[in-house]
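Appendix B. Extra example for self-study. Work through it before the problem class; the solution is given directly after the inputs so you can check yourself.
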Amino acid sequence: MELREFINFPGLTFPGLKITLLKPDIFFKQWYSWYSKIHSSHLESPLEVFHNHVYRLGIPDSHIVLMLADDMACNYRNPKPATVFSHKNMELNVYGDDVEVDYRGYEVTVENFLRVLTGRLPPSTPRSKRLLSDDRSNILIYLTGHGGNGFLKFQDSEEISNMELADAFEQMWQKRRYNELLFIIDTCQGASMYERFYSPNLMALASSQVGEDSLSHQPDLGIGVHLMDKYTFYLLEFLEEVHPASQANMNDLFKVCPQSQCVSTPGHRTDLFQRDPGSVLITDFFGSVRKVEITKDTINLTSPVEPPIKRSGSSDIQIESLTYVDQLPVAEIIHQKPKQKDWHPPDGFILGLWTLILLVFFQTYGIKHLKHIF
Amino acid sequence: FRLSSLIGHISTCPSLIGQCCQRHPGSVDEFQEELVIRPLHSGDIYASFQFRTLWDTDFLQEGQKVSHYRLFPKSLGQVLSKFSVRELHISFTQGFWRTMQWGQPFIPSPPGAELWVWFHDTVSDVDGNWKELTNVLSGIFCASLNFIDLTNTVQPSASFKPLGLGNATDHRFLRYATLPREIVCTENLTPWKKLLPCGSKAGLAVLLKSEKLFHSSFHSQAVHIRPVCQDEQCTSKAWELRQTLNVVFDLYTAGQGKKAFRSSIYLNCGKTGELFELSPATPLLSQAVVLGDRRTYSVFDLTRAETFGQLRSLNLLLRWKGDGGEMLRPLLHAERYVAGFGLQTGEIHTVIYNNHPYRAFPVLLMDSVPWYLQLYIHTLTVTSKSRDNKPSYIHYQPAKDRHRPHLLEMLIQLPPHSMTEVTVQFERALLKWTEYTPDPNHGFYVGSSVVSALVPSMVAMSTNFTQDQPLFSSFVPVKEESSYFVRVYTEPLLVNLPTPDFSMPYNVICLTCTVVAVGYGSFYNLLTRTFQVDEPSLPLAKRLANLIRRIRGVPLLT
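Solution. C-alpha cells for the complete assembly:
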C-alpha cells in the first residue's frame, strides 16, 4: 500500500535575500507487499516514479513521508539489487540514488500511519518521520495495495477501514493540519475508501468502483511479479506531461485511465471540496513553486564566527598523556567483582507472603502467649 | 584465470568542489580518506573505504556551545552533545563475512544493524538517553533503529571496552544492541554519504554508486565516533569520525575518482608479481602491519598529480595469474548453529576455533539471546578437545519476560590448535498473539555472538602512534607488540517459535456460532412450540357446496 501526502508550508523568509516558499509540498507514501501470501504479487513502483515526478515538480525530500512495507530493491530475490524498474524495458531505475524511506518494514502499521496523519507521535520521533503540516498546507496522500469494500490491507496482517480514515481526516481538520487534501487510492474497490469522508476540503480519486477490481499492468518475467497497476501507470503517464508551470487542472486528472484502458472505472469525489475542481491546478498538490525575489541593495553580512580559542590553560593541568583503554584486560576481568545490585524494597509478593506467615503465627499462638514462647 | 579491473577517470574539477575537501589553514578540522583494495583468494575483491574527520573541539564542555561546523557533520555533532555521548559505533551490514575464505576484515561487523554507545559519566538516566538516541539515529540513517528498546539492549560487563581515549570504564554507561533483521539499502547509504564533507560529489565517495555496491557478496557501512589523541604526545583530545564502507565484490566494477585532500588508494600486493600483475606500476610501496600480518601495499596518492599520468585518469588493472598461493589462515574463527528438533526445545552451539599451532589465548564470548528463548544455564557446557574447559570468568544476567534479554559473557582459555564448543539448551516460549510479526513463519532472529580476543601476532606490531599511519591500520589502538585485538562475529540464528494459526479465531467463532445456532435453536423450538390440529381449507367450490348443504341440513363434505 502506498501513501502519499503533500503538504504546503507557509512562507519563510531569509535575511538578506527574499525567498518566499509558496507551496513546498509534503509527499507521503507507503508501499506494500511484493510477495503477498494470498493474491498474486504486485510490484508497485508508482512510489518511486511519483518520487521522480514530485522531485521534478519541486517538492523536497524533507516534505515527503515515504512508507514502504517491504524491501523490494535490496531483497535477495531481486536480480538487480538496489534497483526497481517501472517498465520491463528497464530504462528508468525508480529507486534512484538518493531515496529516503522514512518508515520501512515492520514500522508500516495502521497505527503508525494514523499517528503520522494526526500528529500523535512520541516526543522522540525524528522530524523526517513526522508530518509537519499546518493550516496552509496542501497534502497529497497516495495509497496502493490490496483492498476490498471498505478496507485496505497493511502487511497482510491488518486492515485500515474507511471509517478510520475518515475519522483521521476529521481529526486533521479539527487540528488544522491541512488546507486542502487530495487522496488517491489504487486498490480493488477503491471507491469504497472515500465513501465515508465527511471533513471539508477533501478531494478523492480511486482506481475502481465498489464491486470492481483494479488490475495490474505488466509483468516482468525476470522477477516474476507485476510491476505496476494499470491506473497508476496511466496516471504517471499523465503526470509526465505536467511541468511546474502547467495549467492542467483536476478535471484532466479525473479523465485519466477511462474504462477502455483500465478495465475498471475510476471514480472521484469532489463534493467536500470548496473550490471548483476545474480551477484547482495539478501543481497545487503535486508540485511546489518557490518564488525568488532578487534584491539589488547591498546587504551587510555579520562577521564570521571566530574559531574557538585553544584552551591554553588546560595543557598546564593535563601534563600526563592520555591513554587508550586496554581492550581485553584479562587479569582485570577475572578479578572483577560482581556488580552490586541496587537494593530494591521487597516485592509485593514477598510482603504478602510474610504478612500471611505472621498472621497465621499470631492466630495460632495469640499475642499474650508470646512471652512464653520466647 | 580471472580478470578484474577498476577504472578511474579524472575530469578537471571545478574549483568550488576542489576546495571543499581541503584543509582550512588555521582551522581545526582535518579530513582524510582512503581506499584499500585487497584481492582475496576466492577470486573476490575486498574494497574498504575509510573516511576520517578529525576535529579538535570539546562537545561536552560546559558553557561553550559548539555552533560552527565545517567538515564534521552538524547532525552528528548535535547528537553527541545532546546525549553526552562519549563513543558511538553504528554499523549496517548486509551479508555475512566469511572468515575462513576471506581472512579477517579491517573493521568487523555483524549482519544487520549494530549499535553500541558509551555515555559520559555525567549522564544520570542512561536508559532514557539511549532510547532517545536510537530514535534520533533512526531518523538520521532511515533505518528502523526505533525497534531497539529494553528487550534487545544489553549492558556488557567486560566486552566492548571503549576504543577511544579514556581511563574510567564503568560499564553502567555502556549499551549494546543489535537488530539482525535490519536490511541495508540505498536509503541507508544516502544519509551516510551526506555525512561526508563533500557528500558524494568529490573524492573517493564518487565511487560509491548504490547499484554497484549492493550487487556484492558483503556490504557493510559504519560510523565510528570516538575521542582520539590529537598528536603524538597525546596531551589533548580530538574527536574522530570514521565512516567505513567494506564491500566484497565478485565481479567487474567501475567507478570514478576525483581529487580530494589526502586521499590515497592502497592496494595490497602480497608478493608482487607472484599473485597478480598490477598496472600501472607505482614506485610507492609501503609496508604496514595490520591484524598481525605484514603486507606490502602499493600506494596511489590521489593528491599528487604524478599518479594520474598523461591522460589525467587513473586506471587500475589487476590481472590474476592463475591460482594464487596459500592464504594466511585466520587464527580465530567462530561458528554458531541451533541443534535439536521440534518447536519446544533446542540447543545453541557456539564453536570457536583456535588455529594457532602452539599458543593458547583467552577469548571473551558474549551472547545476547532474546527472552523468548528461555535458556537453561544449568545445561551450559564448555568443552575443548573433548574435555571440560572451565571459563575463568562468567557473567550471566537472566532474562525477564518482555523486559530484558539474556546476557552471557565468558572468558574462555582456548588451547592451541583446538576447537572449543559451548552448548546451552533452551526452550521456546509462546508469545502473545499481538507480539508476532506479520510474517511469523519466517522465524525470529537471534543476534550474533561476539568473540573478542587478543590474538598472538606472528609479526611485531608497532605501538607508536604516528600521523602518517594509514587509516586501516590505526583503527584499533595497539597496546602491546606481541598481540593484536580482534573481534569475530558469528552467524545470527533464525529460530522458529511455535506459531499459532492466525485464522483460528475466525474459524472458532464461525464454528461456535453455527453449533450454538443449530443446537440451541432446535432445543428452544422443541420446548416452546405448541402443536394444534389444523383443518385443511377446502377449495372454493366445495365451500359453497357446504354452505348450501348446511342450509339443507345434510352432512357436509370434507
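Self-check: The longest strand of chain B covers residues 237-249. If your reasoning did not lead you there, revisit section 3.
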